[in-house]
Amino acid sequence: MTPAVRVPEELSARVPVEQRGPGLGRDAVRMLVSRGSEVAHHTFTELPRLLRAGDLLVVNTSATLAAAVDGWIGHARVVVHFSTSGDDGRWAVELREPDGRGTTRARAGGPVGTEVRLPGGVRLVLEEPLSGRSGRLWWARVAGPGVAGLLREHGRPIRYSYTERDQPLSVYQTVFALPSADGAGSAEMPSAARPFTARLVAELVGRGVWFAPVTLHTGVASAEAHEPPYPERFAVPAASARLINAARAGGGRVLAVGTTAVRAVESAAGADGVVRPRAGWTGLVVTPERGVRVVDGLLTGLHEPEASHLLMLEAIAGRAAMERGYEAALQGRYLWHEFGDVHLVLPGKAPHAVHCSSN
To answer: pTM to 2 decimals?
Structure first.
């Protein structure tokens, strides 16, 4: 059972932090830090002094796609959110309706055979729902020029109604993003890594913190639906598996940057806790019952409290720490969503207290 958390509308980050005032960079967000049930308030620039030599950060290198494309069903305008490319050439897509404010609202999926006209002579035909749980996402066959070219020419980043305006794709790329040779990527930004800058990464490396890159191409997560995550493509390369295992053997803490990194590395971990190179699809949902085998802590954004997200936090930090963290974030007026503040969950138990740094 996950707690009901209502996030006031005014706590939604409507624009990126670097657009909120002169001289601000991506790393100017606030950072709530949880150790057990102890909570402290920091800025993200303080991350290097909160970590120690031998710690390892698992980062997701998936690049964000310009995954929203305007289309038409008959004379009706729709917006197609391209979510995930399948092994058979099809794409999992979500059809949404324009809301007149530059964003979209939910739309009933289907039916089978629905044809969507897209720019550049591309046609998309819905074939079957992605799963029996929901009719929101559908597998669709795309006829015409390739989807990668379509997104480059006519796509824009997926944007939800809590944001103020459209942003260029560069705003949605993290410092770790690497374009994929086959055009694959994430429909929505792996946003926990957004505050990292090249300067901060260099400082962390200089302090002896390791980085292990993994890839998980995340699909769309509708603002209205809190379904368990669907299977997603991931890869944990051999070099990263070795780094993670070496850090654990040397007493370092393995800290995942984002829930996508947790899902990837835990999907590559055996019951013995050893991480092995692996690539393919993962349907893993991390729950307190399943637990975590490798990850000691997590850097995550503040998002709407989806059940799967809260269950993962509970698996890593424990229920009391998770609830205390959300309570402190609301009390401290932290900002939510992909342009908002972040939450660093570190291992360790501590008294129930709130401490503030002097920043």
So the answer is: 0.92
